[in-house]
Amino acid sequence: MNNMQLQKEKLLQSLKESKFPENIVIAFSAVQREKFVPEEFLLNAYDDVALPLNEVGSAISQPSTIAIMLQLLEIKEDEKILEIGSGCGYVLALLSHLTKNGEVYGVEINTRLASASIRILENNPNIRIFNTDGCLGLPKHAQYDKILVSASAPDLGSIYQILDQLKDPGIIVAPVKDSLFQIKKNNRQLEKHEFPGFAFVPLVKKNA
Predict the structure, then answer these.
(1) The listed CATH number (3.40.1000.20, 1.20.1090.10, 3.40.50.2000, 3.40.50.150) that belongs to domain 3-196
(2) In terms of C-beta distances under 8 Å and separation of at least 24 residues, what long-range contacts does 151-154 make, across chains too?
(3) Rounded CA gap, 18 and 35, in Å?
């Protein structure tokens, strides 16, 4: 077993010890993170840290943080899921694995990142990636069972703008400043939970 495989086993063991659901651990086992990181960081592909991408201000999130977000989404099979700020496509691959026969949509404003992720994920027919501003979601393909925002919004109002694209019932998981929020829509009511102590790259608007 080479060093990368040892690091992957160490990460998977850490996720198990942290009591993440089995389906999430299996998804992390199935998806090859090394395909999504820059070549100079290949030896760190399975370290539990965020890694910079080859675009200024962009990063691939820390695996344990991604696992928390996926757990909060409460993903089931055959769901329609949107990720805003899909970056290199790593989380899209995890989402695809978790929802099995569902549909996964990614929105990424950075053209080179979007193009690279389309190339890496070209053999995943249930993943569709759009190179556009995701601040207003992806209304063309709404509604979604789950929405994941993978970049930090300036305020909750920015997240509430896309609530009409979420099915009822449905769940949005989104970072706002230094907190992670889980917002559940159920019978036209919203249930909000805040989890502080996170750091994400900011959500970028087209005119920023």
Answers:
(1) 3.40.50.150
(2) 151/84, 151/85, 151/175, 151/200, 151/201, 151/202, 151/203, 151/204, 152/176, 152/177, 152/178, 152/199, 152/200, 152/201, 152/202, 152/203, 153/177, 153/203, 154/202, 154/203
(3) 25
Question: Mind listing the pLDDT tens digit for each residue in 16-25?
Answer: 999 999 999 9
Listed by start position, the domains of the chain span 3-196
Angle 21-147-93 from CA coordinates, rounded to 5°: 60
Query: Looking at the annotation, which residues are catalytic?
Result: 61
Backbone angles phi, psi at 102, to 5 degrees: -80, -170
- Please report the pLDDT score of residue 208 as a whole number: 43
Of 58 and 17, more confident: 17
